[in-house]
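Q: Got a minute? One more chain.
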Amino acid sequence: MFRRDNAVSSTSTSPVPATATDPSAASAQAGPTGVAAASSDGQIATTSAQSPAPALPEPSYSRRYVITVFISLAIAMFSSSFAETMTATALPTIVGDLGGVELMQWVTTAFIMASTITMPIYGKLGDLMGRKFLIVSALCIYIIGSGICAIAPTMEMLIVGRFVSGMGGGGLMILSQAIIADVVPARQVGKYLGLIGAVFSVSTVLGPILGGWFVQVPGWRWMFGFNMPLAGVAALCIVFILKQKRKELEAKLDVAGIITMIFAVTGLVLTVSWGGTVYPWLSWQVLGALAVFIVFAILLVLAERKAEEPIIPLYLFQDRNFNLVTISGMLIMAGQMGTVTYLPTYLQIVDGLSPELAGLMTVPRMVGIMITSVSTGFIAAKTGHYKWMTIACGIVVTVSFFLMSTLTTNTTLFVIGVYIFLMGFGNGLGQQIFVLIVQNEFAHAVVGTATAGNNFFRQIGSTLGASFVGTLFTSGLTTNITAHLPKGVHLDIADITPENMVKLAEPVREIVRNGYNDALAPIFLIFVPIIAVTIVLCFFVKENPLATSINHGAVNGNPDEH
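A: Always. Here it is, folded:
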């Protein structure tokens, strides 16, 4: 098996560049002393420039095949993203129907946590077994989760359905990105990752609109039922179009790594979700969850040091670029997922918008993402330069969060739309490029594992962001409203829904509007210095040449050189 975490033999102290199938690519990416090659036992070895090891056979795919594969993957990604945006818009109504406003954050957190846990598993198994069977399986799991959500009689059952959906959704994201790297070289991957970003943008525009329609016409349950056949179509397309054979799993599955990772992620999420809301920060429940995270995080590292095929290989962290872009993506996703999730509800409560109009207010963000994600992918493919995009991403997102922190109940919808557009514009500048950088840093034989590792920590950021913001928002909302209600007037936070707002007396309604604004706007300001850190980190990214072959070796093939 192809591994990079074992001992590495080297005849040179220079970083080992990527291999390529054509002489021009080899000369452009190879250093003066050697090239990376896989030894007979699967380990990385460094050979001299005088006797380079033969490159792996380079697959040749027609443009028509690549496009049809991409369309199939786009449908799969669209179905997942589509459901998430519909759910975000319908969430206030769902909570009003099922009750349990204190569980509202778990509707989002459950999906993110499940997808986070499964990402590294899908990534590693995809490298070892092939990705076609896995992505079809992920779609089937996603369909089952959607079915559970559609018939859920309680918030608890809805959360279970979201968790199951997340188990499939984690595979869709990772496997789609890795399959693209299977059919096009890194130099061209940026274009397709950018187009994937555009697919997300379209789904995020249509999702809130249809989500609002489902809420008001057939009912919110039908939006989950609507998404099931869409995911089924994606599965059928991949079955008949993608030309990949399933490989036998020759290595032992990293069971210890999987178990310790599940407990570590769960402990971390529970610590942030419970602390200060469900239980006091110093309660035994929160401290116990924190202890579980620390213990199993340590056990995870120990397990990965010994595993034959680790789920999260430690050699990933020997690569400087991997660390820089992964941390940057994690911080940005923490802010984006944590705050954007609450915007549709904010607009319905504070500005009195209908679910459809609140959904439409997310369109500027998606337009911004679409513009930059597509253009940066094509620019990276044409010029080979991408570092400046990551720096610009941090700058624009930081500015947008500062502007969002200035929101008041009197801020016009036009101004809010401009701020939201800037947020999306900045996000599109870097998030797809972060994935491109990671895929370019490591050999194609481990592209799924490396991609999953990057997305795993970005999802950790999403999970922490959603939980952190949920904790602060719920606490701030309760405090703000309770402190300003007239004596003798009691208002249960669980009763604050768009439908119930019209039933409140005007003075109470104004207190709720101010409470919502004063609970959310300061959270944007908290994230300003956090996201600004990414600007500094991206200055230290090394702009390695983008590989021009699919079966390339690592840009820095020798882990000892990182």
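A: The first helix runs from residue 23 to 29.
Q: Perfect, thanks.
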